[in-house]
Amino acid sequence: MATEQAAENYTVEDLVALNPYNPDILNDLEKFVNEQVSSQTYNLDANLSLLRLYQFEPERMSIQIVARILIKALMAMPAPDFSLCLFLIPEHVQMEEQFKTLIVLSHYLETARFRQFWDEAAKNRHILEVVPGFEQAIQTYAIHLLSLTYQKVPRPVLAEAINIEGLALDKFLEYHAANSGWVIEKGGQSQVIVLPRNEFNHPELKKNTADSVPFEHVTRIFPVLS
Fold this sequence. Notes:
Elements: H1 2-9, H2 12-18, H3 26-39, H4 44-56, H5 63-75, H6 81-86, H7 91-94, H8 97-110, H9 114-123, H10 125-128, H11 134-149, E1 152-154, H12 155-162, H13 166-179, E2 183-187, E3 190-194, H14 215-225
Antiparallel strand pairs: 1-3, 2-3
Main location: cytoplasm
Domain PCI: 42-201
Family: Belongs to the eIF-3 subunit K family.
């Protein structure tokens, strides 16, 4: 009864903040994982708290819930959430086939091997499709990586990274040209996508630390040096 009253008076985030190791909140945390899936939201702290509780009460572990936590963590890349969650999952559980698959997918993403990633994801759609927004999240991550490396991306490179081709890719490019500052150029026999400038694909934009030191600070240093 006390647990029900606590659930009524506090949000899940409140319960985690008050006592993340309280086993009475385990069911609330599991429900919260499913809410994150259905509402396409994400709360790493709550999910880590649940995985820690599973360590203390392994007999209560839900394999389905753990899988959903790991898929949501993959969707958060480039944040290191997947590794943080995996660290809390026992090795014998990691050896289950669906978790081995998720670990392989994580490795492909970390090493930017997108063709292998999408091939493996297609073979394991039954594992991933339970979490809405998965493909879009990975596409966002792929574009993020490309923007760190390329000033101009050949259309085939982009198509492979985000797993979109043909008319669907045309619409995708039109959308980002209108909303993300992309410029589509004709390059030889294919298109080239010019990505917005940033300090990674245009190093000259990186602010020099020396330039950010106010002049009055520099003048204070001279008497000390003399």
